[in-house]
Write a structure and sequence with these properties.
4 helices, 34% helix, single chain, alpha+beta, disordered C terminus, binds zinc ion, two-stranded antiparallel sheet
Length: 104
Amino acid sequence: MLLARGAPAPPCKTRETRRRAAKPQRAIWNSARWQKLRTLVLARDGYRCVDCGRHGSQLRANERLLADHLDGVLVTPFELDLYVTRCSTCSGRRDGGRRARPLG
Ligand SMILES: [Zn+2]
């Protein structure tokens, strides 16, 4: 597709674009504070997905347990009460392909 000079580029949805958009969240996910909170959430919920009830040991190789934000948005990253344990499959189903948003 040819674009006229000066015309805005069409929205790019490449993997790299999505990776860059998720960068603020990745900085949180890599922090010791987040790792501690995640461990507390999973332990509180007994290492079971709150939706399907499967234990971490019952997940398939490509699944894992996540500390999933109730609102689906990472605006208050360290509030224990705002998270529940979900497997990656249930979390993805709930999100419906939600995009990462930068922190406000
Ligand atoms: Zn599940």
